[in-house]
Amino acid sequence: MPAVRIDIANLPLFAQDLIGRTANLPRSSLHLRKLSIFGLSIDAWFSDPAYADLCARNIAQTPAGEGAVEITLFLIDAQSTGSPAPARWGEDVFDRAAFNEALASAGLHGAYLHDPRVWQFFSPAARTGVQMIREPGATPDWETGGPLRVFLHWAVAMNGARLCHAATLGHDGKGVLLSGAGGSGKSGTTLAGIAGGLTTVGDDYCLLTQGDGDGASAYPLYRILKQDPAGVARALGPVAASRFGALNWQGKYEIHAPFLHRSPFVDRLAIKALLLPRVAHAARSELRPVSAGAAMRAFAPSSVFQLPDDETQGIQFAARLCRHLPCYELFLSEDAEDIAGTIKHFIEELPE
Question: Are 161 and 209 in contact (CB under 8 A)?
Fold first, then answer.
């Protein structure tokens, strides 16, 4: 029997029906993992225990605190639960703006990935999210390094935070945000800083909040680092990679804190500046001031358009952040110790 096809007209009803049917699955057939992150207390129910373990291992667990928002997620595959195969998108063109608008009219968020066929919906009112895939393991390749990313994006927004595609480095509680497109040097800079004794809340994604003043705070999403073999060798030495396992889909190691000599992860950094790394092969690393507009052009595309919706609010958030923080280009040398020392000295000189 062919899978049902979904279009803009029946999308909201399909989403509401999928959330309702999945929430009524018998809990005895599912695997519960309790996650606590930035004011959220999440009950995540999985049909695949291996996926459950991956999410519990890679997602940062931080105290939810009093008044935590309680969220329930169902991460389900059709094969394990005996559910119908995930529906297909039925229109010739997938119009993301129209997709988001149709769901917003029903008070929902959502995303659809054509290949693999994945549906993701979240109801802020019910504080419930559902992901439906075909079979165990049929998630996108990038899920190992950023599990449940879109659900965390939707859920933390309820607490006034934003998920951002950026790296961080810090010292004594103060920190900097590292932003730029893939290949700009964010992860390599982070690993070099960690090797030099700096801390981090993440090298790929983090949560950001902005107060009424000029300050911003960064919180962890994942306690995992990613770097290619050459970057690992530069920062940690040529034999370090032997303990990091296989390369991921991007040709990078996914490095967990227990694999390092010390855990670099902290629960919060007060962000005092935005740095834009540049692979410059310079003799010494150098910081040069850059305009808020240039910083915005580097920060916004990777942080806003990797997420399935909310572009307008994301751009506004990015613009406010770049206006309020001092922004610099960081022209990188190839010496990890030099990179770490340059950033540490810069952070130490930043005002409290």
Answer: yes
How does strand 174-178 pair with strand 167-171?
A: antiparallel
Per-residue model confidence as pLDDT tens digits over 136-188? 999 998 898 899 999 999 999 888 889 998 999 999 999 999 998 777 788 89
State the Cα torsion 342-345-351-352 to the nearest 10°. Answer: 110
Kindly state whether residues 94 and 174 are assigned to the same domain: no
12 phi/psi in degrees, rounded to 5: -60, -40
Residues 81 and 108 in one domain: yes
Give the pLDDT score at 214.
62
Q: Are residues 23 and 81 in the same domain?
A: yes
Return the residue matching tokens 């291992």: 57
Q: Which residue, 126, 159, 192, sits at the end of a domain? A: 159
Tokens of 318: 């990015």
Instruction: Domain of residue 208: give its range.
Output: 163-349
Per-position DSSP letters for 6-44, written without gaps between them: E-TTTHHHHHHHHHHHHHTS-GGGSEEEEEEETTEEEEE
Tokens linked to 313: 């609010």
Radius of gyration over every alpha carbon of the chain, rounded to an integer in angstroms: 21
How far is it, in rounded angstroms, from Cα 71 to Cα 138?
A: 24
Domain boundary among 159, 181, 204: 159
Query: Is the domain of 145 the same as that of 169?
Result: no
User: Which stretch of DSSP H or E encloses residue 268?
Assistant: none
Structure tokens at 240: 């370090």
User: Mind giving me the DSSP string for 297-337?
Assistant: HHHHHHHHTTSSS-HHHHHHHHHHHHHHS-EEEEEEES-HH
Residues of the chain with pLDDT under 50: 1-2
Distance CA 46, CA 148 (A): 12
H/E run at residue 192: helix 186-195
Which tokens go with 333? 């040398």
**H/E element, 68:** none
Q: How far apart are the C-alpha atoms of 321 and 63, rounded to whole Å?
A: 26
Assess whether 91 and 183 both reside in one domain. Answer: no
Strand pairing of 269-282 and 167-171? unpaired
Q: Locate tokens 């010494």: which residue? A: 284
Q: Residue-wise over 287-306: b if at least 16 C-beta within 10 A, else e? A: beebebeebbebbbbbbbeb
